[in-house]
Amino acid sequence: MNILLWIIIAFLLIVFFRIVIMGPSRWDRLLGMSVTSVKIIVLIIFFASANDRAYLLDFAIIYAMFGFISIIFIALFLSKRSRRGKE
After folding, report:
1. Residues of the domain holding 33
2. Phi and psi at residue 58, to the nearest 5°
3. Which of the residues 7, 31, 44, 82 could staple to 60 if both were Cys, CB 3.0 to 4.6 A apart?
4. pLDDT, block means (10 residues), the chain with 87 residues
5. Could you give the C-alpha distances from 5 to 14, 19, 54, 66, 77, in angstroms and in order?
6. Domain count of the chain?
């Protein structure tokens, strides 16, 4: 289980590199933020199951809801901003 956690952290760093350095557009960076959110949720779930802490699963569900809502609001903001620039 420990190796799996380190593999997920490595993938998280790769996605973070994609967001900060290589993200060619705002939409690619938004997708990277969404992937980062999912990987953090998976980390919380694996950590909870490895250490027998069921209450952390509640935090994972709450984090997933906040992550989904924030990605939707950021996407709406970016789409309105790009529409305003074309007019």
Report:
1. 2-86
2. -65, -40
3. 44
4. 84 85 80 88 90 93 93 90 71
5. 14, 21, 17, 23, 34
6. 1
